[in-house]
């Protein structure tokens, strides 16, 4: 349906080709979250890997920062319609987290990421390994600020950004694809921006 | 973040549908309100939003999310309040081009977290900055529509008296003395009423507002730009509100 009188602000093809359907470019870095920003001291911070209910590895802030670091420049896409191009991150590849825990074969096919504020989100293991995802510790060369998910957030840039859990506290292998916080509230179980999987049924 | 998830049947696919612009109501120098009549009206909860889609003749599409301002009791037409962003793409269309009778596309309702129903109890403490007041307005209109007397308080931060969206209606709701209290925080203007403030939101202000309620707030809803939401939600925590009771919605993207 053509909207009378609407022409839009169309981007050059090289930018337009990097914007998934329904997304528009932002130069800012908008902040979104379901609750107040938790302020987690580095002394209280930890990262836990679980298989089902069982913890299999746990790192302090210092221990986690001793893991190999990776720099990634990625485009990110928020379900609230903004995309930001070429965002620079530093962190630990999920591959390297698993390796440090001695996990060479994933325990299950699914992960539920957990956060300090009670948030959770589900991601298939296949979308976290092979260099696709990191536990981000720095943004634009600086420690990740609390409102952007610091001390650490998951970064899964090829999925809508609610999958990149802020204030991440650990990853849990689950037998089934368990819906997380937003997935239980009408948002898509997988969330591929290029297929515009915003909501259940998309 | 820890409230129970309402059990419900799997949600059906959200389909795009045509909606006619039934009325355009200028409100403040920067905000116009739009009544949109969906071709297939739908039920929603106060606090939810819709996605709006505009299509250019060459097929280019722009989508935006807008919170619903009207009460869930009114489904034939929903109201959106749209602030004109000078560098925007969709809001200038609504302000400068759209006319009554035009059709746009929308789908909804969307969002299952930033919602309140009188059955959820109270008091709800509502903290809104700028157009962040819109989903809170839906909650207050819902409260008024069902004749609830559950205590409620809205803090609404605006730049000036002229920038207070829904001003006449909010003042009228405040005057009903039915348990609702309004406090305006004007960041670049003098306060006009004894209950209002002439400064940005801060922890002392939130603590004073919590004290105006007859009991501790049961739900806190904070909506606005990120600096407002950060200040208001941290202020609520300092005033003794458990972080798990605070729901936030931030715009700017």
Strand percent estimate of chain A: 25-35%
Structural class of chain B: alpha/beta
Q: Ends of chain A: how far apart?
A: 19 Å
Please name the CATH architecture of chain A. Alpha-Beta Complex
Number of strands of chain A: 11
> Which oligomeric state applies?
heterodimer
Instruction: Compute the number of strand runs of chain B.
Output: 11
Q: Could you name the CATH topology of chain A?
A: Sulfite Oxidase, Chain A, domain 2
CATH superfamily of the largest domain in chain B: Nucleotide-binding domain of ferredoxin-NADP reductase (FNR) module
List the total number of helices of chain A: 3
Please give a structural write-up.
The complex is a heterodimer of chains A (202) and B (253). Chain A has 3 helices and 11 strands, in the order αβββαββαββββββ. By secondary structure, chain A is mainly beta. Chain A has a single domain, classed as Sulfite Oxidase, Chain A, domain 2 (Alpha-Beta Complex), CATH 3.90.420. In chain A, the strands form 2 sheets. In chain A, strands 1, 4, 5, 8, 9 and 10 form a 6-stranded mixed beta sheet that branches. A 5-stranded mixed beta sheet of chain A has the order 3-2-11-6-7. The two termini of chain A are 19 Å apart. The model of chain A has no long low-confidence stretch (mean pLDDT 96). Chain B has 2 domains: 17-110, Translation factors (Elongation Factor Tu (Ef-tu), domain 3), CATH 2.40.30.10; 118-251, Rossmann fold (3-Layer(aba) Sandwich), CATH 3.40.50.80. In chain B, helix 4 (203-212) crosses helix 5 (226-238). Chain B is globular and about 55 Å long. The model of chain B has no long low-confidence stretch (mean pLDDT 95). Chains A and B meet through loops of A and strand 3, strand 4, strand 6, helix 5 and strand 11 of B.
């Amino acid at each position: 349906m053509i909207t009378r009188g609407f022409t839009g602000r169309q981007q050059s093809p090289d930018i337009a080709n990097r914007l998934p359907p329904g997304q528009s470019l932002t130069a800012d870095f908008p902040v979104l979250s379901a609750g107040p920003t938790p302020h987690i001291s580095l002394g209280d911070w930890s990262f836990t890997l679980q298989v089902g209910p069982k913890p299999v590895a746990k790192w302090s802030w210092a221990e986690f920062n001793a893991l190999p670091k990776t720099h990634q420049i990625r485009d990110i896409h928020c379900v609230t319609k903004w995309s930001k191009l070429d965002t620079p991150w530093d962190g630990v590849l999920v591959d390297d987290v698993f390796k440090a825990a001695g996990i060479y074969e994933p325990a299950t096919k699914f992960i539920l990421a957990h956060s300090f504020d009670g948030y959770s989100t589900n991601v298939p293991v296949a979308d976290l390994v092979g260099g696709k995802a990191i536990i981000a510790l720095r943004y634009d060369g600086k420690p990740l600020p609390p409102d952007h998910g610091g001390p650490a957030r998951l970064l899964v840039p090829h999925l809508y950004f609610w999958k990149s859990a802020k204030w991440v506290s650990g990853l849990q292998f689950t037998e089934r694809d368990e819906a997380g916080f937003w997935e239980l509230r009408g948002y898509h179980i997988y969330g591929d921006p290029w297929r515009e999987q915003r909501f259940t049924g998309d | 973040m820890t409230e129970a998830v309402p059990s419900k049947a799997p949600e059906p696919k959200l389909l795009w549908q045509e909606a006619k612009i039934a009325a355009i109501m200028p409100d403040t120098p920067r905000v116009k309100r739009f009544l949109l009549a969906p071709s297939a009206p739908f039920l929603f909860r106060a606090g939810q939003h819709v996605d709006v889609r505009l299509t250019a003749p060459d097929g280019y599409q722009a989508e935006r999310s807008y919170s619903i301002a009207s009460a869930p009791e009114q489904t034939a037409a929903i109201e959106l309040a749209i602030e004109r962003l000078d560098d925007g793409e969709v809001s200038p269309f609504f302000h400068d081009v759209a006319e009554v009778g035009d059709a746009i596309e929308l789908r909804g309702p969307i969002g299952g977290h930033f919602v309140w129903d009188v059955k959820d109890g109270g008091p709800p403490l509502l903290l809104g900055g700028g157009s962040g007041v819109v989903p809170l307005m839906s909650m207050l209109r819902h409260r008024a529509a069902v004749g609830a007397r559950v205590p409620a308080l809205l803090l609404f931060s605006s730049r000036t008296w002229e920038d207070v969206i829904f001003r006449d209606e909010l003042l009228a709701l405040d005057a009903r003395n039915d348990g609702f209290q309004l406090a305006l925080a004007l960041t670049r203007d003098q306060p006009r009423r004894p209950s209002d403030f002439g400064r940005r939101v801060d922890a002392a202000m939130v603590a004073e507002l919590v004290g105006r309620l007859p009991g501790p707030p049961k739900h806190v809803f904070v909506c606005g730009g990120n600096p407002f939401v950060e200040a208001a939600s941290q202020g609520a925590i300092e005033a003794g509100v458990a972080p798990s009771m605070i729901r936030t919605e931030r715009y700017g993207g």
